[in-house]
Amino acid sequence: MADRGLEGMALPLEVRARLAELELELSEGDITQKGYEKKRSKLIGAYLPQPPTANGAAVVRCRLQHGEGAPGRAPRSGNIGVCDVREAAGRERVASTAGNRPLFYFRFGVDQALPPERRAPVTPAPSTRYHRRRSSGSRDERYRSDVHTEAVQAALAKHKERKMAVPMPSKRRSLVVQTSMDAYTPPDTSSGSEDEGSVQGDSQGTPTSSQGSINMEHWISQAIHGSTTSTTSSSSTQSGGSGAAHRLADVMAQTHIENHSAPPDVTTYTSEHPIQVERPQGSTTSRTAPKYGNAELMETGDGVPVSSRVSAKIQQLVNTLKRPKRPPLREFFVDDFEELLEVQQPDPNQPKPEGAQMLAMRGEQLGVVTNWPPSLEAALQRWGTISPKAPCLTTMDTNGKPLYILTYGKLWTRSMKVAYNILHKLGTKQEPMVRPGDRVALVFPNNDPAASMVAFYGCLLAEVVPVPIEVPLTRKDAGSQQIGFLLGSCGVTVALTSDACHKGLPKSPTGEIPQFKGWPKLLWFVTESKHLSKPPRDWFPHIKDANNDTAYIEYKTCKDGSVLGVTVTRIALLTHCQALTQACGYTEAETIVNVLDFKKDVGLWHGILTSVMNMMHVISIPYSLMKVNPLSWIQKVCQYKAKVACVKSRDMHWALVAHRDQRDINLSSLRMLIVADGANPWSISSCDAFLNVFQSKGLRQEVICPCASSPEALTVAIRRPTDDSNQPPGRGVLSMHGLTYGVIRVDSEEKLSVLTVQDVGLVMPGAIMCAVKPDGIPQLCRTDEIGELCVCAIATGTSYYGLSGMTKNTFEVFPVTSSGAPVGEYPFVRTGLLGFVGPGGLVFVVGKMDGLMVVSGRRHNADDIVATALAVEPMKFVYRGRIAVFSVTVLHDERIVIVAEQRPDSTEEDSFQWMSRVLQAIDSIHQVGVYCLALVPANTLPKTPLGGIHLSETKQLFLEGSLHPCNVLMCPHTCVTNLPKPRQKQPEIGPASVMVGNLVSGKRIAQASGRDLGQIEDNDQARKFLFLSEVLQWRAQTTPDHVLYTLLNCRGTIASSLTCVQLHKRAEKIAVMLMERGHLQDGDHVALVYPPGIDLIAAFYGCLYAGCVPITVRPPHPQNIATTLPTVKMIVEVSRSACLMTTQLICKLLRSREAAAAVDVRAWPPILDTDDLPKKRPAQIYKPSNPDTLAYLDFSVSTTGMLAGVKMSHAATSAFCRSIKLQCELYPSREVAICLDPYCGLGFVLWCLCRHGGSAA
């Protein structure tokens, strides 16, 4: 056959003859397609034209990328964008496309001397102005920022020209419209490998290649300006003539034959995997493949004719090898609904990290001080004996006056007394309630740190593990049930508390403390000295060096509301105290003012633990005093000349509000002001404002020391106090738009959507820190990428108590580099903080993992939304700044919900005006829609123990519909952009329509049938007997002691049981009573009116032994005879019962005055009492003569009051029992728990008949 591509070429006759032979061999299957191509290329290679190229002309290489690159090769890095191709030769440009469709790469010569202004930008010009960042907290003082407020007001000002108060609906992208570059793919017919180093062939440009270059630029320009999702490009474009595209196609067609690339994959020629290339209109004419003999020829991507007869054999073999043995497991659980949803296309202009891979940051070496104690208990013993009168802790009352001073001597002696009483006064000497290593709960109010401190150190001396928790105020506290689950999982049976707290706990009318919902049963033990016994003189606590035993368990509330217990070992506790001492420069006898919660986190580490190690004096400010006098902590700093203060940004904010009423403030004694929530980026506003106001009061800039911490990693980083006032703290202005994609981009403060963050200091001494990707494999981040901070140190938590799986994912993380190599041999701990390590080793935190909301692939933080909402009207509308933000899942994506408490005097008009402004501000600054904004009355949201909003409980109320908002604004059109695709009308009748039509017409399409009972139970002797009465007799002889029934009472204990022989004997006695006292004959109906229990079962089989037909009837309710007794009477009359069997108690009830008022008691059939049975045995047991005779009647009352009865024969009953035994696998060793009524239907069958299978019920 004359090849179409060679028709215009002058080939020698011997070459054409050889080509014909090759085609014949290919058609007959003598050679493969690959061999044919190889030999054909050798024959015609010498006769192909080689047009010369001018110096500097561009050499065009067109590569078709199929998505599966060469193994082991990383994609080439470079600037990917739209670039100017007008200059001749010497420049490399890449036009990339998104997705897995074929991508066209156009590469030109590289000119390293290209001036910077002519090169393509590394990052595309931003098309949007506003985006986001992250943080934590729930009160307005955490988010107060004048700069952010001004930014919000400026953003709202842009909406004044709009007529609508709410944001306009955002445009949804359609999958029908091509939004990527492949919609404008230029013509190409070449194929090749994705590998950069693969052989591309010797295709060369033609003299018209410069025109092709110009037209290539025109194609790129069309792709950019024609795309609906692309933004303004910074590259220059030039339009070409309309004929340039055709000339470029001719160039490609000529170079196609010369392209000696690898042969195409013939297995992908079918229409399911087409290689689609858009061509100009002039080149889209379809051509019919010619035939060669009887074999039909098909064209591959290279236009090479292939024999279908030969390729089918090869294709069948290749397809067999390629076919997977089994589809992935995920495919079995694919939700069909997901296929109907529109897929959100990623933004092609989204910023991506470009920096180098970060290196793990090592903190300073932990120094070794000779006088450091070997354990915290040893430190307490030293100071308690050497300096017993040194003040340890001073508590304050609500008036700000000293309430109690706890000295180190009192702390030592009282802790010993608590330890002795815990170990020796609870339980008995033989069986004590608490042993070393057990867990006990510490339940102390926030205004009694002294009692809590004594109990904590008493537990350490007794080697008992304390679990500090909040005081339960009511039985329905928010989150109290989860705390109870934690105590139960820890095996806590004893709770230590103070006398005042014990008296304030909720009590029952008898004076006992009720068991809180979800809590284990606890013994409340008061630790006041007057209630404790003095330890003997020869008793002394065993104080040993710090080891890997658990020291205490700190509770942590997760995002979903569950409570976990973080275990901290004794060596980690001591090392953490040493690291804090070195980082903060603590010395003996220093005074520290603590405003934080002393039961957990920074307040516990500094105010209870590290202070004792260094013999410091702690001034504890209760939260109740802070609410009355926000300046109280500043007053105590001045009064006691305190060196250190531990506060939160909210305390600094409220001090600013109230400072005008206070004079003579001097903060020059402070050398360190620890900001516990310094990891919250919004705390920088409070820090700056506090410094501006109190700098004239002696406060120095270097004194403010933010820190970052987490329950899992303890203190992550802290800013060191310095003496150099000229060294400014580290801070950065970051773009919120970049932060939504996890990328660090420095911006200017003039922008409205920027986040100013401050550093939280350096890594802790003796620790190593790195940032890993939040999702997937813990791979190290790049230097300009946001990741989750991980810490490797001794001073961290070790596990979540009792949760090995979650422990492995959090406390046993091994970060890896991009090549897969582990960073170190020791595991890291996830901190739950999102941030990065900046210049100079400074740590920056921009949010928390618990606050993340991933909406349409972008990361938003709940606290950012809170800050923007509060900035609209900071103090005028939201009641006390109480606002909650969380996400709910709608259509497989997270949607933002805002719930706020409005002020009591707010009108409905004010509410909706505020909500509309909030939606506008969030849409402008964060560029995300709000799904629902709900306003509730003041003081109605669930609260945490310290007065904040309980976020998980609020979310649960929202999902349950129990939030009861007073104003709601739903905006699904602004955020739900992946609505299901519209249904497509079927062009013709489909299989579903055929099936529905057959069903409507009454045709049976298919039927289901179970296994044949006749072919089973070959080894079961029970199948020899057709009737239930015979089976019971056989069971009583073969397995007389096998327990058939066990009846449990309401307490869960065994009330009675019944074996095979016991049931057989009781059934015999009942049969005798029916025949002698009732004078009944075969086939008479007997109504069985029994409560659920053994008597009902025995009466049923007694009827079968006597040949009677039993009917089980629910007895009347003693407290509602008027409505329940007529039903009993109706069943007895309809069933035509000749006798009624029941217990003595129900017999009296049927003949009572209440019964006489409801029915005619004289119309009852004879009533037999089975409480007193005869001791005789029947002469013979009845055996039915015909399997089709009646066995029992099944009566049931429908919900509409209709009475229906079903007749069951002996054969049907036996077959029913055998099928249930087979289906449920009721072997004799099985135990079946039945919680159904035994009067009709399945409940009756399981109660009375499934004993046929030999299982215990």
Molecular structure report:
The protein has a 9-stranded mixed β-sheet, with helices on both faces. The protein has a 5-stranded antiparallel β-sheet with strand order 6-24-25-27-28. It contains 32 helices and 42 strands. It is globular, with a radius of gyration of 42 Å. Mean pLDDT is 76; it is low at 51-140, 162-309 and 1252-1257. Helix 21 (862-872) crosses helix 22 and helix 26 packs across helix 27. 40% of the residues are buried. It is α/β, with parallel strands linked by helices and 1257 residues long.
Helix count equals 32
Strand content: 15-25%
Q: Which residues form runs of ≥5 with pLDDT under 50?
A: 51-140, 162-309, 1252-1257
Oligomeric composition of the shown chains: single chain
| Largest beta-sheet details | 9 strands, mixed
Strand order, largest beta sheet? 8-7-16-15-17-18-19-20-23
Question: What percent of residues adopt helix (DSSP H or I)?
Answer: 25-40%
Shape from CA axes? globular
Structural class designation? alpha/beta
